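// run 5 | inverse folding | seed 20
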């Protein structure tokens, strides 16, 4: 079901004590919006974070997951492991996973299948690089990133998919897509899904924007009709900034 979501991707930041501190700071700030709040700490802190947010209106996501159920995959984490500590949401396809760990859409399609088979929610990330936009290929690139990893799914599966459009040139750079650029792409994404599936499914899917969302630009970006929230990196590491973004709805 389409809803407003603000998700914090902590990336490879925060040790155990910092995770606890950040969550206790989040607790101190009143939430005044109806947005669903998700935080994605690193693996080592997922369980303590899950315990720490009990009773709060915050849920926990993992930043990645392996596609296999179990086995000889040194260093990897499975869906079962995540579920066993209460984590039911996973971010897949982040541009840093694509760029630094070689994750391609055929692999991401497998990861998506595994997550859905395990009744997890997927936050599927994608977005063009600056060169794609400069060559006016951004719509084509985004279309491929979505269709290659997700269009094998049946209609019913889409209830567990959240999309996160994150133009690579806006991640961690301080450069944000303008609210109009975000809206233009989000509308394109919705139309792409409507063309492949149905208008109903397109209308129901939650589409987040990510890339240098800060307290001073969140409200304008979130006010766009096809933007349903944000995936927040840097600004999610400061409780005040993150809650200001949550409360921007
Ligand atoms: P940023 O990161 O907010 O620091 O640009 C966003 C993301 O990578 O999800």
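// decoded
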């Amino acid at each position: 079901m389409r809803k407003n979501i603000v998700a914090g991707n902590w990336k490879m930041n925060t040790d155990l004590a910092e995770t606890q501190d950040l969550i206790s700071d989040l607790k101190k700030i009143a939430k005044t919006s109806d947005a669903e709040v998700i935080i994605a700490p690193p693996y080592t802190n997922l369980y303590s974070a899950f315990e720490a947010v009990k009773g709060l209106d915050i849920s926990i996501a993992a930043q990645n997951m392996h596609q296999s159920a179990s086995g000889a995959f040194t260093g990897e984490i499975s869906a079962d492991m995540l579920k066993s500590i209460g984590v039911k949401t996973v971010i897949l396809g982040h541009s840093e996973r694509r760029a630094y760990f070689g994750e391609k859409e055929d692999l991401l399609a497998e990861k998506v299948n595994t997550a859905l088979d395990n009744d997890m929610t997927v936050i599927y990330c994608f977005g063009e690089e600056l060169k794609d936009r400069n060559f006016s290929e951004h719509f084509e690139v985004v279309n491929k990133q979505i269709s290659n990893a997700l269009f094998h799914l049946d209609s019913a599966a889409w209830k567990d998919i959240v999309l996160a459009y994150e133009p690579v040139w806006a991640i961690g750079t301080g450069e944000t897509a303008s609210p109009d650029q975000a809206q233009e792409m989000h509308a394109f994404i919705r139309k792409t899904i409507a063309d492949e599936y149905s208008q109903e499914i397109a209308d129901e899917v939650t589409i987040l924007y990510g890339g240098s969302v800060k307290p001073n630009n969140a409200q304008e970006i979130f006010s766009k009709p096809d933007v349903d929230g944000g995936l927040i990196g840097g600004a999610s590491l400061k409780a005040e900034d993150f809650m200001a973004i949550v409360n921007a709805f």
